[in-house]
Design goal:
heterodimer, A: mainly alpha, 2 domains, B: alpha+beta, 9-stranded mixed sheet, 24 strands
Chain lengths: ~290, ~450
């Protein structure tokens, strides 16, 4: 196994999500049959292969596997067909809905939103994870970021921070016990969303400021859709909306595009960002 | 209103059940023998919710046992209700829905082992895909409280309130003779800030006397709101101990689950000792309590999810179209025939999916109201427990020897299942089984520690 392979954070992500899936199965928290999981995986990989052939590149199945695992963890259906459709929509969107050399939507997110909006044959199950799996997801998410994506740790921190602040603010304003926002935060789908979906570097802005606006905007939107429009899937809608706005944010705060395996070193990153400002301030002193 | 009257405030609704329910009926693969309905529980509330898009009809049954003139209920609702949106219905309909969806006990009788070639494993849970035929299923006072409207509906006097301040509302309630439990004010404040309206229902004694009934009938409200939830917080304020709530949802799409609490399926399909037939009530209660503890007292339990056209085995007949309409299912036509849909074959039709949820709640474990979502899940689920009576006739073939030899192991498994489900003592279960005709040798306890100290004279 070469070093580059291990450096790819997607390997770790695949391991973590598979681990969560197995844990959820064992704890009977997820009611999804292995055959459904396999159908999602096979469809996603087949679509990835098809897409790669059409644009004449070598197929890489790691991202497709991650998308398949996310769908397996988050989406439910009575029969296998809505899940196959979701997997096809997810990977299909990567090859067809593109702007500026990047796909617009997070594939799993786009598939979930499309399926939920278009039919009632597939649904999400927020709140079905239970404390143990929720904790496991949280640890996996934190571990993932500390190990591989330190420079993008801002995304889950800002998202969870903003969302938690809104929940606690609401509880304080309403005079509710704080047990209510805590209950809302103990949600497996929320953790998975924060650490493994919204933080996908391919569909978050590369510029730090744009990313902050993108992430906190998604949290605010998720809060509004959930608590003022009573949409149980507000979380997923919020990311879909923000990814549509993303090109504007990137135009305002341009930055080099992320490649898989890039180790964005946070120190270099901070140096690069602040050195400009330092230079500006130091100029008159020269 | 008599302001000296001190009324007790109830915020949760409860069941007052008193009706004879259907007796055992034959189903295609077993005999249905008993059900565990909501009457087993004290302080049990029953709420039926029809939900279709934003359209909602709540039917709330209370088991109020005190003096009727002291009865008052404050119910948070998302919108101001008109008189036509409030209705009173019969207890019998909710009781029927309760009986139809109740966890059930079924029994099978082993056949002569010398003649049986194929024996089905009956312990599988009865989860089947739904039938393919499912097509898609004024005046303002000093408190800042406005009594938007007052109606008398059935035996209830209803006041629709809108308030801007919780202290205003609580002051108004106190001044109007209601006992407000401690801690209710902050909950009222939270509701008011969320734009919630309230109505107060109390008993109109004259109208009540005219009904000739000794109990209060369920109150119904119909409204449109994007909020799909059931307010339980006011009910936890003055509760002593836990309360039992049964929620029956009627929808077109499929199963309903809670989004802010885990919805867990009740264990189902187990073979248990035959003597439970006499104790199904205690069994069910013990099992439910054990499951509640297993989920750290924080789960909502799914007890039934089924297309309302049929059942198998049936704890009660499916509801008629008239009953469904009464519960708010506006899309079914009224009954044209006297015949009710019968089990077991799925029928074309009414496109109503029923979900029965059971929650044992208090403020510590359920701080927030129950938030629901409708899923597209139309797979069937029921709480069903199986009794298998061994063959007692003469049988002297080779197969019979094997059959008799297999029984102790089977009985032991049944004892273990029962102990696991209920937390009852396994030895007591084995003894009772022996007393009640399922006789078998207790397995030898060969724990390693027994083997070390078994013959130690110091133990006496």
């Amino acid at each position: 196994m070469n070093r580059g392979f291990l450096r790819d954070p997607r390997i770790y992500q695949i391991l973590m999500l598979s681990g969560l899936l197995v844990l959820g199965w064992l704890a009977r928290a997820f009611e999804i049959s292995p055959s459904h999981a396999i159908a999602i995986l096979v469809t996603a990989c087949a679509m990835q292969w098809l897409g790669s052939v059409m644009i004449a590149t070598r197929p890489d199945f790691k991202s497709a596997t991650i998308t398949a695992l996310s769908l397996t963890l988050l989406l439910r259906a009575d029969t296998v067909w809505p899940l196959i459709a979701a997997a096809a929509i997810a990977i299909g969107s990567k090859f067809t809905l593109r702007l500026g050399g990047k796909h617009i939507f997070n594939p799993a997110n786009f598939a979930i939103v499309t399926m939920v909006l278009m039919s009632n044959a597939a649904w999400t199950t927020p709140g079905q994870w239970g404390t143990a799996i929720w904790l496991a997801a949280l640890l996996a998410g934190i571990g993932f970021f500390i190990t591989y994506r330190a420079a993008r740790l801002d995304v889950p921190i800002i998202f969870m921070g903003t969302y938690a602040a809104l929940l606690f603010g609401r509880a304080i304003w309403l005079g509710d016990p704080l047990a209510i926002p805590l209950l809302r935060l103990e949600n497996g789908a929320l953790i998975l969303f924060a650490f493994f979906m919204i933080s996908d570097p391919k569909t978050t802005p590369d510029g730090f400021i744009a990313r902050c606006i993108f992430t906190s905007g998604a949290a605010l939107l998720a809060y509004i859709l959930t608590f003022h429009f009573y949409l149980t899937d507000g979380l997923f809608f919020s990311l879909a909306i923000m990814t549509v706005i993303r090109p504007v944010l990137e135009w305002l705060d341009p930055a080099p595009k992320y490649q898989w395996g890039d180790q964005i070193d946070i120190q270099n990153f901070i140096k690069r960002r602040f050195s400009k400002k330092l230079a500006v301030h130091q100029l008159p002193a020269e | 209103m008599n302001s000296t009257l001190k009324k007790t405030l109830f915020a949760a609704t409860s069941a007052l059940a008193a009706i004879t329910l259907t007796t055992g009926a034959v189903a295609f693969c077993g005999f249905y023998v008993a059900k565990a309905d909501t009457k087993l529980f004290n302080k049990a509330s029953k709420v039926a919710i029809m939900r279709d898009g934003d359209k909602t009809v709540l039917t709330m049954a209370n088991d109020y046992q005190g003096d009727l003139q002291d009865f008052a209920m404050v119910i948070p609702v998302p919108v101001v209700l008109e008189e036509e949106q409030i209705h009173v219905t019969d207890n019998a309909i909710l009781d029927h829905l309760d009986a139809y969806t109740a966890p059930r006990l079924v029994e099978y009788f082993d056949e002569d082992p010398c003649q049986v070639v194929y024996r089905k494993d009956f312990s599988q849970p009865m989860e089947m895909a739904a039938g393919a035929n499912d097509s898609e299923i004024r005046e303002r006072d000093g408190f800042g409280v406005t009594v938007e409207a007052e109606y008398t509906v059935g035996e209830y006097d209803i006041q629709i309130l809108s308030a801007e301040q919780s202290d205003g509302l609580s002051g108004w309630l106190v001044q109007n003779g209601y006992n407000l439990p401690d801690g209710a004010e902050s909950t009222l404040e939270s509701y008011i800030k969320q734009g919630t309206k309230f109505f107060v229902a109390k008993v109109n004694l004259e109208e009540q006397a005219e009904t000739g009934l000794k109990y209060l009938r369920p109150l119904q409200v119909a409204f449109e709101s994007p909020k799909f939830m059931l307010p339980i917080r006011l009910g936890t304020v003055n509760a002593d101990g836990k309360q039992e709530l049964f929620v029956f949802t009627l929808s077109r799409e499929g199963r309903v689950e809670t989004t802010n609490y885990r919805t867990v399926k009740l264990p189902t399909g187990m073979n248990i000792p035959t003597y439970v037939k006499e104790d199904f009530g205690p069994f069910y209660k013990a099992m439910f309590e054990t499951q509640v503890q297993k989920e750290n007292e924080r789960a909502v339990f799914l007890e039934y999810a089924w297309d309302i056209n049929w059942c198998d085995p049936c704890a009660a007949d499916p509801l008629s179209q008239d009953e469904l309409r009464e519960l708010g299912v506006y899309w079914v036509g009224s009954d044209t025939s006297e015949l009710q849909p019968r089990r077991p074959a799925p029928q074309i039709g009414q496109n109503v999916f029923v979900t029965r949820l059971h929650v044992s709640y208090d403020a510590d474990h359920f701080p927030e109201d129950l938030m629901f979502k409708q899923t597209g899940d139309r797979s069937n689920f029921q709480g069903r427990y199986v009794l298998r009576h061994p063959y007692r006739g003469d049988a002297t073939c080779e197969a019979a020897e094997q059959y008799h030899a297999s029984l102790p192991k089977r009985f032991e498994q049944e004892a273990q299942s029962l102990a696991n489900l209920t937390g009852w003592n396994i030895d007591t279960i084995r003894d009772t089984m022996n007393e009640k005709g399922q006789d078998f040798e207790k397995p030898v306890d060969d724990s390693w520690w027994k083997r070390i100290w078994d013959n130690d004279p110091k133990d006496g």
